[in-house]
Structure formats: structure tokens, C-alpha cells
Amino acid sequence: MAYRPTEKTEARKKSQHQLLLRSALTVVSRGGFNALTIMAVAEEAKVATGTVYRYFDSKTALCAEIFRLASAREVQKVKEAAFPESFSSCKQHLLDAIATFADRAIQGHRFAYALIAEPVGPVIEAERLIYRKQYAEIFGALITEGIQTREFRPQNSAISASALVGALAETLVGPLGLGASELAGYDQQQLIRSIQSFCLNAVISSAQA
């Protein structure tokens, strides 16, 4: 008779998997993806390395899942800011989405740097392209809506959205690469306002600027 996992066994496996994910996220938040190893996760979770290997057969597989998990969380936060339940204006939603992206990046600067710019292998680079594309899709939809409401000038929404994502990443990568004490010396709100102003001016009509 074939073995069938019981509900209790499945619940235990799910709990163990979640523990390993949380532990891996903690490791990345401290040292980036270069610090994420099977051994580091095992030490953080206080389990044997063999336990980690039962869920992730390699460091690459572990990194890829953690990148997908973390990036999905960040993309969702920006999406909620871009398309809230109550409508104000596309201009305001764009400003809110940019502020959400930048503020969350600054607050979790080490993790954000790992997602945005840390040198990584080809598998994670592929995930990073998907991550950036997801942001571009959010901004593209918002720009398209803004064109329809005549808040934004006529333009290629996809190209403008990709440019905004690039501008956000490029502007933040310097500050995010600093240590916590150095980053504290930045006027973070002024930095966010400057990014918002640049991005808004890039899509708004000259008459409204």
C-alpha cells in the first residue's frame, strides 16, 4: 500500500518550509544574496543542513525562491499604492506608487540593494528582469490611464514605464549601497520628493508642469 502523507505530516512540512523561508529572508536582509547559503539558513533556522536540502536542492534554487517571494511582496505594495480602492487622480497615484517604492527601499536598504543591484548569477538576473517588468507593467497601466484622463501627455506607455523603473533603480542604488549610519545622514524625504518630481515631469504634459 502506497504511503500517503497525513494532514499532520503535511502541516509539519509546510511549517518547516515557512521557517526556512523566514530564515533565508533574514540572512539576505543582513548580507544580501552573496551571504545566502544552505549552511547560513540552517544556522539561522537552527536545523541541520540536511533539513534545508530536503526543501532546496541547491543555493541557486534557494536564492531564486527567496527573490521571487521578496519581489512579489514589494511589487504588491507598489501596486496597492498605484491602484487604491478610492480614486483621486492618476498623478497622485503615480506619486504614491513612487513614494512607496522609494520609502520601502530606503527603510529596508540592504534587502532592497540585493533585489535591485547586487551582482548575482544568471538565474537571479533572470528573476530580476521579471521583477523590473512587473513594476513597468504597473507604471504602464497607470500612465495609460493618465493619458485617457488627459493628466499625462500622449506617449508610449510601455517605454515611459520602463524608463521610470530605470530611473528609480539608478537613483536609489547609490544610497542603498551605503551603510545604515551613512544613509541616516541623507535627507530621505527630499530624496523621495526629487524622484517624484523627476518622474512626474517625465510623463506629464508641459502645460501642466
Summed up:
With 209 residues, the protein is an all-alpha fold.
How would you describe this structure to a colleague?
This protein has 10 helices and no strands. The protein is mostly helical and 209 residues long. The chain has 2 domains: 57 residues, Arc Repressor Mutant, subunit A (Orthogonal Bundle), CATH 1.10.10.60; 138 residues, Orthogonal Bundle (Tetracycline Repressor, domain 2), CATH 1.10.357.10. Helix 5 runs antiparallel to helix 7 and helix 8 packs antiparallel against helix 10. The longest helix has 27 residues. The radius of gyration is 20 Å and the shape is elongated.
Secondary-structure topology with pairs:
Blueprint: H1 7-31, H2 38-45, H3 49-55, H4 59-82, H5 90-107, H6 109-116, H7 122-148, H8 157-176, H9 180-184, H10 188-203
Helix pairs in contact: 1-2, 1-6, 2-3, 4-5, 4-7, 5-6, 5-7, 5-8, 5-10, 6-8, 7-8, 8-10
Figure out the total of helices. 10
N-to-C SSE string, H for helix and E for strand: HHHHHHHHHH
Can you tell me the overall shape? Answer: elongated
Fold-level CATH name of the largest domain: Tetracycline Repressor, domain 2
Return the average pLDDT rounded to an integer: 89
The share of residues in helices is over 70%
Question: Which structural category do the helix and sheet elements fall into?
Answer: mainly alpha
CATH class of the largest domain: Mainly Alpha
CATH H-tier superfamily of the largest domain: Tetracycline Repressor, domain 2
Number of strands: 0
CATH architecture of the largest domain: Orthogonal Bundle
Radius of gyration, in angstroms, nearest whole number: 20 Å
- Kindly report how far apart the N and C termini lie: 73 Å
* Domain unit count: 2
**Poorly predicted ranges (pLDDT <50, ≥5 residues)?**
none
Strand percent estimate? under 5%
Give the biggest beta sheet: none
